Structure formats: structure tokens, C-alpha cells
Amino acid sequence: MAKFTLNVNGKQHEVDVDPQMPLLWVLRDELQLVGTKYGCGVAQCGACTIHLDDTAIRSCSLPVSAVGQRKVTTIEGISEKGDHPVQLAWREVDVAQCGYCQAGR
């Protein structure tokens, strides 16, 4: 176990976790930010995508020890009111978790 201070959605969070724990599980289990989803577990489907300093990253394959001082933004962090165009579009078309296992149109 090790202590990490993470900047998530503009707030500082301290966690005491295994350094190899994927960021996905830190977000979901330690910080209760469940908007970031588990999909495939191998960084292919995109359900676990977060922004790390404005770059899209698959959080299921990123150990928390690799985050450092970079800013983490989850779906909850793009708009406090839930009115960001991405959030609105997902609700409007009733998007499933990620679409990885669904046939295209």
C-alpha cells in the first residue's frame, strides 16, 4: 500500500492503495466516482476512458502510480450540472455502457 494524492475533477483526493491498482478501480471503489465503467479490462472498448491532462486514456490499464501530478477528469467532472453536450447526448439516445459488444448500425 502507498499513499497517493490525486487531482480528480479539480479536487485533491488522498488514497492509500496498491501502487499497481488500476486507476479505474481507484475512481470507482475508493472515490465512489462510478461514471467511469469497467468494460473489457484490456483497454480496448473505451468504457473506462478518462482524461489525463486533456488526453483520453483507458483507466483500466493505467496503474495509479503512473498518474503523478497530472489532472484526471472523469465524466462527472466535465459538468457539475450534467449539461455538457456529451452527457446530454448519452441520455438523449439512451447509450449503453460503451457499445463495444453491440453491433453497429
Automatic annotation (TrEMBL):
Residues 2-78 form the 2Fe-2S ferredoxin-type domain. The keyword Nucleus does not apply. GO terms for molecular function: 2 iron, 2 sulfur cluster binding; metal ion binding; oxidoreductase activity. It holds the Pfam family Fer2. Keywords: 2Fe-2S, Iron, Iron-sulfur, Metal-binding, Oxidoreductase. InterPro entries: 2Fe-2S-bd, 2Fe-2S-bd_dom_sf, 2Fe-2S_ferredoxin-like_sf, 2Fe-2S_ferredoxin-type, 2Fe2S_fd_BS, Beta-grasp_dom_sf, Diverse_Oxidoreductases. The keyword Cell division does not apply. It comes from the Bacteria. This is Isoquinoline 1-oxidoreductase subunit alpha. It comes from Nitritalea halalkaliphila LW7.
